[in-house]
Amino acid sequence: MRAALQRPDRYRFWNDKICEPRIPRGAGLSYAAASFCEGGLSIEHTSFNRVLDFDSEKHIVEVESGMSPDALHKCLIPRALFLKIQP
Description:
Elements: E1 4-6, E2 22-25, E3 41-44, E4 51-55, E5 60-63, H1 69-76
Parallel strand pairs: 1-3, 2-3
Antiparallel strand pairs: 4-5
């Protein structure tokens, strides 16, 4: 199987015309080869790993698509919060 991989680090990447199909890849922690596709482009999101918003009253965190569960966990620990399901 032949495919391509890109690791963009800026949002303007999404404005470029790139090959199809495009398959998003988050932190790359899946056991399945979900981001593989013959002739496609797998786009790694690990550079998009920031917390965008945090509601301290509702305990809702909005993150970018490349944030790993470990990084999110490290962000929540100082606030005495934990994920309901820990890997």
